[in-house]
Description:
The structure holds two protein chains of two kinds.
Chain A: H1 6-13, H2 35-40, E1 42-44, E2 52-56, E3 61-63, E4 81-82, E5 98-101, E6 109-111, H3 113-119, E7 122-130, E8 153-162, H4 163-170, E9 178-183, E10 196-200, H5 201-204, E11 210-215, E12 218-219, E13 229-231, E14 244-250, H6 257-260, E15 264-266, E16 284-286, E17 293-296, E18 304-305, E19 311-318, E20 324-330, E21 338-339, E22 341-342, E23 352-358, E24 364-374, E25 397-403
Parallel strand pairs in A: 5-14, 18-25
Antiparallel strand pairs in A: 1-2, 2-3, 3-4, 5-6, 7-8, 8-11, 9-10, 9-14, 11-12, 11-13, 15-16, 17-19, 19-23, 20-21, 20-24, 22-23, 24-25
Chain B: H1 3-7, H2 35-42, H3 49-53, H4 60-73, H5 80-94
Helix pairs in contact in B: 4-5
Amino acid sequence: MPMQTRRSFVAMAAGGIALAEGSLIGRWARAELPQGTLVSEVRDTLPGKQPLIKRTYRPPNYESPAEFFDEVLTPNDKFFVRWHLANIPRIDVRTWRLNVGGDAAERGFELSMDELKRDFEPAELVAVCQCAGNRRGLSAPHVAGVEWGSGAMGNARWKGARLKDILARAGLKKDAVEIAFNGSDRAPLDATPAFVKSLPAWKAMDENTLVAYEMNGTALPHWNGFPARIVVPGWSATYWMKQVASIRALSQPLASFWMNTAYRIPLGKFPIIDRFTSQESATTTPITEILINSLITNLSAGQRFRAGQPLDCKGIAWDAGYGIREVQISIDDGATWQSATLGESLGKYSFRTWQFTCPPRAAGRLSVMARASNTQGTVQPAELIFNGPGYHNNVVQKIALEIV
Amino acid sequence: MSIKRRFGVGLLFSLVAASAHCGESSIKLAGGETAALVRLRCSTCHSLDYIVMNSPFLTRAAWDAEVRKMTKIMGAPIPENEVAPIVDYLTQYYGAN
């Protein structure tokens, strides 16, 4: 069993007081986040949430500390919060309606929550919801944006109607190219582009794409999109429209700042398979599927352990749904790697837990690295795949510990 | 036709969450005559921790691009003659050194 110093144990028991070296908040990330990010971060509690790491108050952007990922399913009150526009209405589910239509739909209609639950066979799955910019704050060099550490993600059991069933009722015309979504959030200024997003029609018709009204067995929290949000397993959370109010089948690619300018990555730079061809330009493409990644959840930078005792290392790994093949651990700066033991699978879109016991060590410094690979043979890179917007950061992380 | 009209959402709004978070008032901007102007122009749409968080690594050109993004894309009504002083302030107090 790992032996912590009394000092760090007391700090842990007190719930996140900074240690002598490193902190429970940032772990490995702490040393790498911009100085101003560290100055402005605080633990803050949104109504209905546990204390999260506040990045910005308005619109609210809050991430989960690494220790919240000790559980494979992220509880609703520990789930990260991310909004683009500051006016977020409280939705009355009794008057809420989902408007379905568009120029590439045969017919339009509205659904109440009762109808959404009654008229469409419910589907349930576990899936990771990860912000496209998760770990942006760890980019080297730093880039502008919300300076996320490793916690702009969560894993939940989602229940809802299949989007393809709703679209079947609308009747997709042959020329339907994209399905667009709008939520109920608004910017303080009318001149600001509405946060609207679209999916390629083929992805919208995937049997795993949902209009979810439950998260981990209960209604979605307000901050996570009550009363319903789009769930796109395997794809970046930018498509998971919160407080979804309208669904439009389009015969032309959606023209929107949030599609044509934001959330785009350099074409051909990342090992992705899912293409969004109707929105591709000569040089960039909308971000699509999330990349293979992992996180060590039970260790933090600077933590101390007693020499001569085995050290328990735990974490999670995830990808776009191809399936985790292996998680490897290195305790010699990447010279050699050994397989961790994978936990039970909760489905191909879920976090997968893993565990590794490091052999007893003599006193000194010890760096622990975790590296996941998937069934496609894609492995986390040893060097960051840099891009200006700071997306898709899945570089192998390293946590430096002290053995005393 | 604007995107907003195209989607034509007829939802009833109660902007309970629109009011500023109480923690927001604790954010202090660095000194300088322009701080009040920055607070006035930027805080209409977002809390000022967006500025502090994005420091100190943006060059003057990068801060200029951020401010232009706010005026040209996000529709911030910042008069042209205020843009340079705001960019100067952000560069001096929150820019790369």
